[in-house]
Write a structure and sequence with these properties.
Keywords: DNA-binding. This protein is mostly helical. The protein has one domain: Arc Repressor Mutant, subunit A (Orthogonal Bundle), CATH 1.10.10.10. It is 69% helix and 7% strand. The chain has six helices and two strands, in the order H-H-H-H-E-E-H-H. A two-stranded antiparallel sheet has the order 1-2. The radius of gyration is 18 Å and the shape is globular.
């Protein structure tokens, strides 16, 4: 068993890096990074949404999310609206261009994931997700 846990940790890290790199290459044609995609995806599913909630859903810190949002607004992929009753509250949503781009990106992400999980049954992926959740819980 010596080295077994280290091997598992190493393989997990290698697969995570390869997955991220593969996704990054798929997103390049859209001028979007995987980090930007994670924010766009959350906003697409949860809009209108606050920056604080985006940070929670993406598990990123507030300054990182703020930088990503600024870039996405400059790229005309997101819009920011200030609450009429409470000017401290800002709601974020996808712009029309953002909605179109998200759908194109989602298609690429789905194709990429289909490639990643080729030959693996859904039941096996469910077990894998359960194991990952337990490992993540142990890390908390």
């Amino acid at each position: 068993m010596r080295g077994f846990y280290e091997d598992v940790a190493f393989r997990t890290n290698v697969v995570a890096k390869k997955t991220s790199l593969h996704l990054q290459h798929g997103l390049e044609r859209f001028d979007v990074t995987p980090e930007q995609w994670s924010v766009l995806n959350v906003v697409d599913q949860k809009a209108p949404i606050s920056q604080r909630h985006i940070a929670a859903f993406t598990e990123k810190d507030a300054p990182t999310v703020n930088r990503i949002i600024d870039v996405l607004i400059r790229k005309n992929l997101m819009t920011k609206a200030i609450d009429a009753q409470d000017r401290r509250i800002t709601s974020l949503a996808l712009s029309t261009e953002g909605k179109q781009k998200v759908q194109l990106i989602r298609n690429v992400v789905e194709e990429t994931c289909t490639h990643f999980y080729r030959g693996i049954a859904d039941t096996e992926l469910e077990v894998y997700l359960d194991i990952l959740a337990r490992i993540e819980n142990n890390l908390e």
